[in-house]
Amino acid sequence: MLTIKDCRLVWPDFTADYSLSVENGTLCAIVGPSGGGKTTLLHMIAGFETPDSGELTFDGQDLRPLSPAARPTSIVFQDHNLFPHLTASENVSLGLRASLRLTAEERTLVADTMEAVGLHRLGHRKPGEMSGGQRQRMALARALISRKPLILLDEPFSSLDPSLRRDMILLVDDMRRSRPVTILMTIHTPDEVADLADQMAFVADGRVVASGLPAEIMQGPWVYRHRPESAG
Amino acid sequence: MKLPHPGSLVALAIVALVAGGFIALASVDGGKPALLSIGPYLVRVLLFSLVQASLSTILSLLFGIGVALALARRHFPGREVVLSVLGTTMVMPSIVAVLAVLSVYGRNGWLADGIRALGWTGDFSIFGYPGILIAHVFLNAPFVARIVLDGLHVVPAEQWRLAAALGFTPGQTFRHLDWPVLRAEVPGLAGLVFLLCFKSFAIVLALGGGPSRATLEVAIYEALKIELDFSRAAWLAFIQVAICLSITIVLNWTFTRPPVTTTSRPPAPRPDRVHRGLRVFDAGVLLMSAAFIVPLLLSVLAGARYAVEILDTDLAAAFVVSVAIATVAATISCLLAVALGAAARRHRLALRSPRVAALYDLLPNMLLAVPPFALTAGLFLIMRKFVDPAMAGFVLLPLINGLGALPFAYRSIAPRQLLAGERYGRLSDSLGLSGMTKFRLMDWPLLRRPFAAAFALSMALSFGDFGIVALFGGTELRTLPYLLYERLGAYRLDEASAVGLLILFTAFCLAHVSGRMSYADD
Known about the structure:
The structure holds two protein chains of two kinds. By secondary structure, chain A is of the alpha/beta class. Chain A has two domains: 1-72 and 151-232, Rossmann fold (3-Layer(aba) Sandwich), CATH 3.40.50; 82-147. Chain A contains seven helices and ten strands. Chain A has helices spanning 38-46, 88-93, 104-116, 132-145, 162-178, 214-219, 221-225; strands at residues 2-11, 14-22, 27-31, 53-58, 61-62, 73-76, 150-154, 182-186, 199-204, 207-212. In chain A, helix 3 (104-116) packs across helix 4. The longest helix of chain A has 17 residues, at 162-178. Chain B is mostly helical. Chain B has two domains: 1-30 and 307-522, MetI-like fold (Orthogonal Bundle), CATH 1.10.3720.10; 42-301, MetI-like fold (Orthogonal Bundle). Classes of the chains: A alpha/beta, B mainly alpha. Chain A: This is ATP-binding cassette domain-containing protein. Chain A: Belongs to the ABC transporter superfamily.
């Protein structure tokens, strides 16, 4: 279980204070207005931001002293997930070994994972030769192959068109059903994950304003308060 | 009949000017084929030019890349000052670099004085390879460091975070994040530094130590000024153009940056910054660089002590002449850049002929290959029929300096012109805008800052230039760099350092203005 309790981060122009619990095996959608602190929350869990105070644990283990590489997390960003000079296979292999020196077994695992995301024929291609959707599939494959139990998806599909975005969300849903993994995913359009997510957290002004079942959160007043058309 | 585009006329005029100058130079002695007679001399000059340029390039790259990586990994008080110094060294006049090298490493320089104070009685000379290499590395390594550092900053923050999340070692960080940037930047950068060192004039003239150490540029100068052998100058110029043009064309096709990636995320720290071994290595690199650069800079700054002693009418006149020439040169280079940029944009957007547009892009860079002395001499031979030869310098100096600064002005101005066309071209066409109205409403709002930046940079380059003024300089026409050269020649090092400081200060101020204009938002 992921537990975040009163984790506080302070910058000159922004203060965040998060509390949230996510059960193992859950797909948790993080929604909220732009600049509200969704990405900061994921970066804190991944180890890119260090809270000044509070508790941050996963299955009872304190994550705060751990470096990003030592944490049980794997992250996928909206862009720039791949190294442009490496092939698709090599980019995915980085999730196993940063040295890229793989055993025969590991090479098979890479091929299987590529197949699972539908990219088995494109292993030799460089990211520049692939579409946006294919690139994000590769990034997902790399996150999956690392066998880390907590996957963080930082608006991974927001640059894709709506139909492709839905396909990718279904792919994420398939993955978490095929193996025990907890997924936290920030997303701009809550409607697209409402039927698949087990939990939804609404983040605004650096706080988790509400957390619960997607249907409850979608009906809540905070969603309307932060819609752009209601501003002003 | 429809009039050609002004940019096309400008391109034609530049080509005609260069071709005319060379034809005039080559035909002044009836075009005698003198190449065979200068064979052994030519081989010696070529060999020296190639060896010194290669060594200077290798040393500048090693030094510059080491400093860039160390600065990318380290943050310390005063880092911003170091970065701004690196950014402005490209306008450091080469004659000032000569002064700095002589002041620190010369026979009576700081180093020799220091060693003598320890009881050493021997003698050593900085002239020849040591002095040339030190001066070239002093001028070029900071420039390399700045460009490489800018390239490293293009790596998106997400990839640094990914490297941290994947637990990259320093070696893996270098392989997957630094090396792709270096591989993209270094070939072009190496070509550019090689070209600058291959064409080096003031440094080789002052620190070469004799006629056996001459680049083609110095050989052309000597043929024109000392031996009055125009035919030899023409041959040497053709050979230099052939070599430099080949390098320039290769540079033009190979110098491709990786696609500029943008990210809205704040910058992420590098994961290898905490590695203990790298900390020691970086500290060593930065300390060694400081030990090399700081004394040379201080030797120029030491000129402040003699500032009062050099205040005379010669200095004031030279300053006014330098400013006037730099202003005219900057005006020429910026106006030519705007005209060529407009023509390139027209071919790229309206006529959909990117290959022709690429030729317009290539033209300013090709000027880097043209030896200014040969071009000046050729134009002088044409002009002397119409203009008083004593006044020719006042016309040719700003013209040649303006053409010399054109590649840099074009690089600043043309991309923004293209951007203005892409953003507002269709709108202005639909509104029926044309001519100056179109320029004022569509181009100028986006262009004014890069124009100002290019103007200041062109002024800085011209202000500190000690090139063809060596041909025309004298009591009639004396710029500040020429005054500095005279003081150096008379071994009046204290006065020379004060003049050098004035040149450096003015050039740095102009470069600073240029940098501020380049980075400011519209």
